[in-house]
Design a protein that fits this description.
The chain has 395 residues and is α/β, with parallel strands linked by helices. Helix content is 30%, strand content 18%. Helix 1 packs across helix 2 and helix 8 packs parallel to helix 10. The radius of gyration is 30 Å and the shape is elongated. The chain binds fe (ii) ion (2 copies). One fe (ii) ion binds next to loops.
Length: 395
């Protein structure tokens, strides 16, 4: 036998399995590790084949033997390391295979970690390990507008509308919000729509000075999530369906974690419709499009101006029949190009930020009565604004 012969005994069972699998078979494995294959290698391959055969019949406990470091994948990759890498590469196309190459580990391990991150409400998306990018988008504009079919097949509706409740803000008014829900209940409302900023966002995120507006226990994402889950009003028989607003999205933009999803998963009466915008299809044939929208940017001097510009820019055929707008913290109702538009007010008194920007909030909510026809057109619409005033005791 040649001195160059390398015996299977020189390898651990784990290393042998890896070697055979990576080479694609026994003969290829022999060729891969022998620099100088002999002319007649029947004896060599026979020994190796027997070894592999025995290996396959051996119990799995063998896998517990100490691995050969050169041949065994990196299993020390931590979720936190993978998360940090994806956070650093937001909006950059990555594949599971590319991530496995980068971290020198198996695609399986990457998938396991990604699944765990998704369970922690990080907005990691992937469809296929080779073809589709793993991504964690940070701009809501990249989201495809959601058209949500509802079971609301009737012609007449009574809906509650409340917006910008800013849970966790020192200026949010939980007493007013509870009272609004009492009035909803008394008026037979079972569906409440909320166009964003259900939370004030973690104090540690957002504009300069934002931390001073947030409760001490709402400085981080965990705090504001927990506070909202515990304190947002609950009424038997009422479901609140909401989109995110810019405050809710700050954590998602910073770390990829979707706090709204987490809140809704832990409250059966809260239904999260997605970031920034969602269209609900309602009416006998689901022909009426009701849009919830949370824009960004400041208010114009004339409160209707921005909504008007937005509706004027909509392509024919894409317009909603009803548009509920959050964010501006003021109330208003007008129809532009047959789009019945409501500015939905807020349940947060004037913050220092608003005072700096000369913005005066309108605190309240709507009870909205609707009558639609089979073609989707709104035949009757009655928004009833529930008024609230700044408590004299606070002045
Ligand atoms: Fe807001
Ligand atoms: Fe907002």
């Amino acid at each position: 036998m040649s001195d160059s012969y390398i015996s299977p005994d020189d390898f651990t069972p784990v290393a042998l399995r890896k070697l055979r699998d990576s080479c694609g078979g026994c003969r290829a494995a022999v060729r891969a590790i022998h620099d100088d294959p002999p002319g007649d290698n029947r004896h060599w391959t026979g020994t190796w084949q027997r070894t592999f055969k025995n290996l396959d019949e051996e119990p799995d406990e063998d896998l517990d033997e100490s691995p050969d470091e050169d041949l065994v994948e990196n299993i020390s990759l931590k979720e936190a390391d993978l998360l940090a890498y994806i956070q650093k590469h937001r909006d950059v196309p990555l594949t599971i295979v590319a991530l496995a190459d980068h971290f020198d580990c198996s695609p399986h391990l990457i998938k396991e970690h990604l699944s765990a991150l998704r369970e922690q409400y990080y907005d990691v998306q992937w469809i296929d390990e080779n073809e589709i990018a793993v991504s964690m988008p940070k701009d809501a504009a990249y989201n495809i507008p959601r058209h949500i079919k509802t079971g609301w097949r009737q012609r007449e509706f009574r809906l509650g509308v409340v917006s910008d409740t800013h849970s966790g803000s020192l200026w949010a008014d939980s007493e007013v919000l509870e009272d609004i829900y009492d009035r909803f209940l008394a008026e037979g409302v079972s569906e409440v729509l909320h166009p964003g900023d259900i939370t004030h966002g973690p104090g540690m995120r957002g504009y300069r000075g934002h931390l001073y507006e947030a409760r001490p226990d709402c400085q981080g994402p965990d705090g504001v999530i927990e506070y909202t889950i515990e304190t947002y009003p609950r009424r038997r028989g009422i479901t609140t369906r909401f989109i995110s607003g810019n405050h809710d999205d700050w954590e998602w933009q910073a770390s990829g974690r979707d706090i709204c999803k987490e809140i809704a998963d832990k409250r059966e009466d809260l239904d999260y419709l997605g970031r920034s915008q969602a269209d609900l299809l309602i009416g006998p044939d689901q022909q009426t499009k009701l849009r919830l929208w949370h824009p960004s940017g400041g208010m114009a001097y004339a409160r209707s101006y921005k909504a008007q510009k937005n509706v004027e820019a909509m392509l024919g055929g894409t317009k909603p029949h009803i548009l509920l707008i959050g964010h501006y913290h003021v109330a208003g109702w007008f129809a532009i190009r047959n789009v019945h538009t409501l500015l939905c007010g807020c349940v947060e008194w004037q913050t220092p930020y608003m005072a700096r920007k000369s913005l005066q909030p309108e605190v309240g909510a709507y009870i909205l009565d609707l009558l639609v026809d089979d073609d989707g057109w709104v035949r009757e619409l009655t928004p009833r604004w529930l008024y609230y005033y700044y408590p004299k005791s606070n002045i």
